[in-house]
Predict the structure.
Amino acid sequence: MSNKKTGFVNLLQEFSIPLIVGVFAALVWANLDSDGHHHLVELNPIAAVLGEGWGVIFGHPMTLHFLINDIFMVFFFGIAAKEITESVLPGGSLNPIGKAMNPILSTLGGVFGPVGVFFLALSVCMGMDLFPGMEPAALIKGWGIPTATDIALAWLVSRTVFGGGHPAVSFLLLLAVADDAIGLVIIAVFYGDPTHPAEPMWLLLVLGGMALALVLRQVKVQKWQPYILLAGPLAWAGLVLANMHPALALVFIVPFLPGPKRDTGLFIDAEAGTGDTGGHGPHSALHNFEHDLKLMVDLGLFFFAFANAGVEFAGIGPMTWIILGSLIVGKTVGITLCGWIAVKLGLALPEHMGMKELIMAAFIAALGLTVALFVAAAAFVDADLLGQAKMGALFSGFVGIIAIPLGAMLGIKKIRPGELERNKPTNP
């Protein structure tokens, strides 16, 4: 590939252009032809070609929506798991493992903060009779929506604000993945389909996938493909059959991939050749998994955004502002407060992170967008409430626009990939 083409592709990946374009394409189509957008997303291409009854897996029609949200996103979460796995290696921003406890505790603030703000705002709106004729039970079901964080956009914005090599990026990534894991559990437990209740027994298949991955590692399988193609489907099937969302299937498998002895950084600086990788890090299964799939995943985020961000602007209402306020206020206050409490308990923030970096990371976590849209579809059946909630999730995208100048105003020092490794003193 020529340098010009490589530079263009890198630009697309660096600024998540496919994801952003997908959001705008979905918005335009949904507002010009809502039915057309809906029919395309819910199209079952296999059944369309082979006839009714085809294109069904474990009772789920293989619509474009299913293929994107339940299969493609498995690889996105898998790459996120790779970044977290490396960050807990020696030299990583979350090593020793005690450093990971602060973002994990902060995750509780990222869940309970938005939920608290949601119920407070909802009670105020109901007191003002802003939902005439609506049953409280129907309104309350929206509490799970603002618990979500859009990993892709939070990743993009955090790298823009902090720089690709800042420990705050790994901190926020771990927090976002944990947030969304909790969000998927919330869907399974609180928003489950009464006709398909959760069946935890099938989670034994997830354990089976993990055991198989461990065996592959023990016999020193050095390619990523056997782990992903053999153990991955076991974990995926277990989650599907348990009636839980399978998007996190590879999160259970990726940590078993053979990796470097030390963290190589969020993105290896190939030109500078930085990072103590133990002599084989850049060619490890863990690294190659991301290297081989990241372009496909980054470009494929267009389809994820297109399938999930099709919201009609006519849907603005009180629930819009409840969701938006719950995300921005709840995430920022909740994460900051729990992170501060963790520090007081002796669970330090990663190096180069202070209170202003914690507050900034908490604010960026308010980017609910596509993942919040995902949860909203499970929370509300009423079309009007669903439209209002989706608009609130969509408006949270403005957090990313605000975060960039806000980071500069707060004097956040950017750290480039590999910069910390290069500045470490060498042992004599």
About this structure: The beta strands are 56-57, 60-61. Residues 98-127 form the longest helix (30 residues).
